[in-house]
Write a structure and sequence with these properties.
By secondary structure, the protein is of the alpha+beta class. 28% of the residues lie in helices and 30% in strands. The strands form five sheets. A seven-stranded antiparallel β-sheet has the order 12-15-14-18-17-16-13, sandwiched between helices. A six-stranded antiparallel β-sheet has the order 2-1-11-10-7-8. The protein has a six-stranded antiparallel β-sheet with strand order 19-20-29-28-25-26, covered by helices on one side. Helix 2 (142-154) packs parallel to helix 6 (273-317) and helix 7 packs antiparallel against helix 8 (390-404). The protein is elongated and about 105 Å long.
């Protein structure tokens, strides 16, 4: 299985910063990140909400949603807006509380090396840089800063930005070498995101003490010493006489650190190097934030375009919202969720006074689900015109889907043929979400009578016959009704469906009251999933 195939089937989260945790794998069923014991990715810390963020497999891709916790969720150091799903890609970094979780197996894109860990007393040799001192940059160097800022802001990607920053900081500070780095875990050392040196070489060792301090958010430098005897081993062996490390902030997070040092007989650094370095780091942080937001907006736009195409396909296939047709009247409403799916509804006039009603749901979401929905609806419409039995039509559809659909695509489906005498012959193929309503007596059906469509070959789909009482209605719904979560994660459930339908008396009331109750339960602008509700009643002969 290729890396991308593995990524499509299981999302792996690896802790690269923060308290030690084992790698976590999230299946396509999804998982919640939070401190609650019921969360799939449990992170026990006071800064983590009980339900902090959620990872879902939607529309053929992994999505991350912030669930509105007070301390927020960051993707690639950009804070997510609560409730808006954001596509994930391998290598992305999710920040929640003290943890940095990398998406996919942790394999740095450049190189990660273990630096020599400075001696315990080396931390005493590290000093914070006075912010006032950094503001005293010589006027004659202002033009160099302006030129550098222009190159940084024109960088088309983060790699180009890093190299432009490093070249500019070497030109303007006098340091012999520079690197853009970030900590790679408690024991893994320093990950190099980009580097350059005045002599053309590659920096190969760093003061981890400096990087650790700068990763905490402050600009630091090595204190001047007459002797290097008490400095860390890496500093002494490399004969480093000056070093500086400056954090680069993206929004509120330290995304990386700009590390510089000068060694041996290399020239002394410029007296205003700290101010020049800090100014460039601030500019780089702003430019990096803009690049990352652009990337996230592009992902969002691509997803929105795909979802809009899926919605258009759905809307083209949905019949009139309400009508009378031969022996039945019906009411239906389709309510789109945040992400388009493959809800299917159709009404087919058959021979004599017989009318077929179809409700189904294609697995998955997005354009692929919408296309399969449209193809299945068209095929089943034609098959019902050929067969007297709904089961026979569904057998043909099962063969059609198996021959043309991906292995992970299938349908849940309810197909019923209504006659004017109140008899109904139906097939429930893995669907299970429907009810018989007669006054305040409501029977909610959970168990399907036949398997899913498109899941298995050589399946016998079974016709089931029932007799409706005068005025009795069949209410069909997709799983967006019973599975709609409240803000705390509890689902609407079948008991609440039954309670609502016990108070309704018409097809219109069945649909409007059930959807109103689900909207109220969700307490959100959009439902979690596309939702279709239909109510059908046999018209009594006059």
């Amino acid at each position: 299985m290729s890396e991308m195939e593995q990524f499509a089937s299981i999302l792996r989260l690896v802790g690269v910063r923060g308290p030690s945790i084992d790698p976590v794998e999230v299946s396509r069923a999804g998982g919640v990140i939070g401190r609650s014991s019921g969360c799939e990715v449990r992170l026990a810390d006071a800064t983590i909400s009980r339900r902090h963020a959620e990872i879902s497999w939607i529309a053929g891709r992994w999505m991350l949603v912030d669930l509105g916790g007070a301390n927020g969720t960051w993707l690639n150091d950009v804070r997510l807006e609560g409730g808006a799903p954001m596509p994930l890609a391998p290598g992305d970094r999710i920040v929640v509380g003290p943890w940095v979780l990398q998406v996919g197996t942790w394999t740095p894109t450049t190189v990660a090396m273990t630096s020599e860990v400075d001696a315990a007393d080396a931390m005493a040799q590290v000093q914070s840089v006075d912010p006032i001192a950094t503001s005293r940059m010589a006027h004659h160097r202002l033009q160099l800063l302006i030129d550098s800022a222009g190159r940084i802001n024109e960088a088309p990607n983060e790699r180009a930005l890093a190299m432009s920053l490093l070249e500019s900081v070497i030109d303007g500070t006098g340091y012999g070498r520079a690197a853009l780095v970030r900590l790679a875990g408690d024991d893994e050392g320093v990950e190099i995101l980009g580097s350059c040196a005045r002599d053309g070489g590659e920096p190969d060792q760093f003061s981890r003490t400096l990087v650790v301090r700068a990763s905490g958010g402050e600009m630091v430098t090595l204190a001047a010493q007459e002797s290097q005897a008490n400095w860390g081993q890496s500093i002494a062996e490399l004969n480093i006489h000056s070093a500086m490390c400056c954090p680069i902030h993206v929004d509120e997070q330290v995304a990386s650190c700009l590390y510089l040092d000068a060694r041996g007989s290399e020239q002394e650094v410029q007296p205003d190097a700290a101010g020049f370095c800090q100014a460039l780091s601030q500019l780089a942080g702003l430019a990096m934030a803009n690049l990352r937001r652009q990337t996230m907006r592009l992902r969002q736009r691509e997803m929105d375009e795909e979802m809009n195409a899926a919605r258009e396909a759905q809307q083209l296939m949905v019949p009139m919202q309400r009508t009378e047709l031969a022996s039945v009247e019906y009411e239906v409403e389709f309510l789109p969720g945040r992400i388009a799916s493959g809800d299917l509804f159709d009404v087919v006039q058959l021979s004599g006074d017989r009318v077929a009603v179809i409700l189904g749901d294609v697995s998955g979401k997005g354009v692929g689900a919408a296309i399969l929905m449209a193809a299945s609806q068209s095929f089943l419409h034609a098959a019902l015109l050929r067969h007297e039995s709904p089961a026979a039509a569904v057998v043909d559809l099962n063969e059609f889907v198996l021959a043309r659909s991906a292995a992970n695509r299938f349908l849940t489906l309810w197909v019923g043929v209504f006659s004017s005498d109140g008899s109904v012959t139906y097939v429930d193929a893995g669907h299970g979400h429907w009810a018989q309503v007669n006054g305040d007596k409501v029977t909610v059906h959970h168990a399907a009578s036949s398997p899913l469509v498109g899941a298995f070959d050589d399946i016998d789909f079974v016709d089931v016959e029932i007799q409706l009482c005068p005025g009795e209605r069949i209410v069909l719904m997709t799983d967006g009704i019973p599975e709609q979560p409240a803000p705390d994660g509890e689902q609407f459930g079948s008991d609440r469906v039954q309670s609502v339908l016990a108070t309704t008396r018409t097809c219109k009331e069945d649909v409007t009251e059930l959807l109103a109750a689900v909207r109220l339960w969700s307490n959100a602008a959009d439902l979690a999933d596309d939702t279709t509700v239909a109510s059908v009643r046999v018209i009594e002969p006059s």
